[in-house]
Amino acid sequence: MSVGYALLGLLERGPRHGYDLKRSYDDQFGRGRSLHYGQVYATLARLLKNGLVEVRSEPGEGPDRKRYAITEAGVTDVEHWLARPEQPEVYLQSKLYTKVVLALLTDRDAADLLDVQRAAHLGQMRELTHRKLAGDLADQLVCDHALFHLEADLRWLELTAARLDQLRAQVREETR
């Protein structure tokens, strides 16, 4: 996710201080991965430079207490970003595939590699399932997204394990 667009979207609700934006970001999107203050202020500086936000000061506030507000250009930018579909992530050359082929090329046990990876995926799925059951709706949706991706990886691991002899033969043929 683009932090800049998220901050712009949060600013559409009204002007805010950087620390308020960080807290809102962490509450809404940071689940398990909060922003660092430095990233918030660096992003705000870039948005300010690009004319997407402006600084609004209030009487009695010190110079280090800037309130940021989205500009019309910022609103337009967020609208365009929201309307644009995300590119589906296609993993045609994944790390897992590379590891399997390298294991085969170097006469290592690719089946063991697949078993270890399967166990790691299942462990991650258990953690996400516990988090999902204990979480609010946002946690449930985030965990569902991750779980579906892990399930797809598991299906690939099973299919690859079933085709390992064929892949081994093909890899050996191609290296001759």
From TrEMBL:
<feature type="domain" description="Transcription regulator PadR N-terminal">
    <location>
        <begin position="7"/>
        <end position="76"/>
    </location>
</feature>
<dbReference type="InterPro" id="IPR005149">
    <property type="entry name" value="Tscrpt_reg_PadR_N"/>
</dbReference>
<dbReference type="InterPro" id="IPR036390">
    <property type="entry name" value="WH_DNA-bd_sf"/>
</dbReference>
<protein>
    <submittedName>
        <fullName>PadR family transcriptional regulator</fullName>
    </submittedName>
</protein>
<dbReference type="InterPro" id="IPR036388">
    <property type="entry name" value="WH-like_DNA-bd_sf"/>
</dbReference>
<dbReference type="Pfam" id="PF03551">
    <property type="entry name" value="PadR"/>
</dbReference>
